[in-house]
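Journal club side-thread
Mid-discussion, someone asked how the predicted structure for our own chain would compare to the paper's figures. Pasting it here so we can look after the session.
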Amino acid sequence: MEIELGIGNRTQTVNIPEQNDAVVLVPNNISYELTGKAEVKRALANPIGTPLLRDIVKPGEKIAIITSDITRPMPTGIVMPALLDELYSAGARKEDITLVFALGSHRTHTEAERKKLAGDRAYREIICIDSDPDDCIRMGVTSRGTPVEIFRTVAEADIKICLGNIEYHYFAGYSGGGKAIMPGVSTRAAIQSNHSMMVRQEACAGRLEGNPVREDIEEAAAICGVDYILNVVLTEHKQIVRAFAGDMIKAHRAGCAFIDKLYQKIIPSYADIVLVSQGGAPKDLNLYQLQKALDNAKYAVRKGGIVILVGSCREGLGEKTFEKWMLGAEKPEDLIRRIKDEFKLGGHKAAAIAMVLQDADIYLVSDLEPSFVSNIFMKPFSTVQDALDAAIKKLGKEAKVVVMPYGGSTLPRVATVNNSELHCTEGV
């Protein structure tokens, strides 16, 4: 079997021998009546749990639209024209609308990046800015003790609209919904408080109810006062196939249910080898983002197995604390111990990688220097084929293989696992 895997802006082809019984996890086949801009317009005309946006917005109100940064595939430029038309029909003025790129703990954008993300029309007509974690207003505190400290432009807006794409998230359950607020436009201290709950069993991909991280996110967003969301679901080729507009909870839940139909994959048993890619740029710019695919892959690999992680990582590790923790540990167990003693944003992803390394080897196919990769407890390779050949040599010619070409979006489930009892210790 030959299969192409995305790595950066290119692909690599890998040949998997027949005796390895490779199972390729691709999205389920679902028919779509509308796609792209037409689907966005349909969602805006049929909001879930709210009136039409034009009936919510009043002339003269300050409007903040919060959307994803460059590390996310959210097609803001495609969504914005229909959204702006809806706002203008309510009497909103261009000068009263601000598009905020939610940076969370990520780097700021260049002007060219902001223009590309916003799209020509939005960039030309309205204010487009990055969020600033150093310019926030405290609006309250959640029942779990997370401070609700929100970027001033968002906090002071009369109307708050959250955009985002919905996919599986390794400890918030799913992306989208209130995540545009927390962590999107929150302070680093607030994000740290929220994310510290990732170590709890209930904080895992595909779980909403009882997930402390997700519940804390939505409480923070409610305190902030989200009026409306517009979330989209993308195919593996980044095309909008379904949009969900309206109430922050109801519309988001509808989107999550659709994600499960599209991207949850049942496998008969755990694999010896899992080949996983994010699908290429921009989701594999750095290891910090690539880790999401790794975390989904852990649900498919047996203890003692191998995960072959494929991603360019041309920007390196991607976050200072993450890099410091990864390079500063003598062994993976140190990272797990450390996150329990002192939760630190950035370190949380280092600990998540270490949790996988406890029970599986990681072979990293990337553009990073081999010596650097070895220093972070992974085995370096420049091609997927070399990595697979090495894995088969170690585990045997008949090692069972699962391939996840779009690992950040695909959530494998072993048939014997009860999805109503999801927790983070399944798989590895």
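Post-session note: The first helix runs from residue 36 to 45.
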